[in-house]
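Deviations from the work plan: none for this task. Representative record:
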Amino acid sequence: MWKWFHQLASPPHFYRIAPAFSTWLLLPGLALIAYGVYSGLFLAPMDYQQGDAFRIIYIHVPSAYLSLMAYMIVAVAGGIGLIWRMKLAHAVAASAAPLGAWFTFLALATGSIWGRPMWGTWWEWADPRMMSELILLFFYFGYMALRAAIDDTAKADKASALLALVGVVNVIIVHYSVEWWSSLHQGQTIMAEGGPAMDPGMLYPLLANIFGFTLLFGSLLLRRTRTEVLFRERRTRWVKEMILAPEGQS
Amino acid sequence: MTDQGPQMPGLLVGLVAVARRDLLLAWKRPGDVLNPLFFFAMVCTLFPLAVGPSAEQLTFSGPGVLWVAALLAMLISLNSLFISDFDDGSLEQLLVSPQPLPLVGLGKTAAHWLTSGLPLVLVSPIVAITYRMPGDVVLVLMLTLTLGTISLSLLGSIGAALTVGLHRGTALLSLLILPLSMPVLIIGANTVSLAAGNETYSAGIWALSAYAVGTLSLAPYATAAALRISNE
């Protein structure tokens, strides 16, 4: 187990095995998304209140879930990198942040499009989930801006990891304070929490999409991390040897 | 202990010495203290000009405007927390000193609060009265600002320590600190609004106190770690 862990942490080894892992995640992920999207958009019964508009849930919920998941990955990978000085962990954190920011943006955009027919507005300031998600997006921007502002990679890794750890504590506080705030200002409940149980015909495509999106995210993360590793190790011997090696041996 | 050369002064002595030095520097350069206050007053002037001077409007938006202006004024003053020490090399001396770095950072942050947060708290009643805020609400405003600016100074010291060697200025610092400071703003401004509406507001005061105590206990360690990272 530990040997495997140490091997994984070595950049050349990771660079070699990442494509295979990425493909293994990608194929079932795409299959699940294909099933989820098709049966979500065409087969699932219509919602008795929202009609066809609810179908955006099949993109919205997986994106919102991944936006938080990616932030946790950024923080945990940063923490591992800080504590155990694992170079690969920092590369993972650096690659996960832009992906997470995109999923956050996707969650906000689909939420806004969903809000138009449901609430009659593109943006509902009083909704605590939208506010938390927006502040999360700002966190991602700050994280990426700090990374981009520091030229020295090792320093950028550590500084941004510290920021991510501070941010993780704060994201929780933001969540609760925004909820308190919206309870002060919200005139009427815009959406019942929980609500009636979902029809299995609606639920299974959603679950399939959540798993599918997660696998897709994992696959993309491996690919991005691989490129990041290659860029970071560009001056090392193994990269030079690999590039100079004859075709087909990489 | 005795054969290890000169003895280290006590922890409290070190903390006070660092804070005293920064206060003395601020005294010699009063502009650094006054500019954020002028900025605060000017931002508060912009709002009536932009949204109209009706009494109803002012009493409604007063708590929020004052809080946002105070937050921005704190942000402006944060930029200079470590930068001059970094430029003249005294920050490195603090880093290699035997004093624990979190305490050194806390000393500097305390001086920062005394020269930026406290003056804001003291000036805020003048602006609040022009926004037609009643006396008891002004007291609530001052209390929330006191608790809130303590948290903001401490949170800001993390951001200032992370960005100290970078010459990208305030924009980056704001990008880092503003998301962190949103809970303080949310709780602070809404507590004042509740007080202005004659509703119970004690929950907000407790929450702000908890936040201040939490940052006071945790932020100095993050600041110390950040200082070590950016001065490698």
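The two ends of chain B are 30 Å apart (CA to CA).
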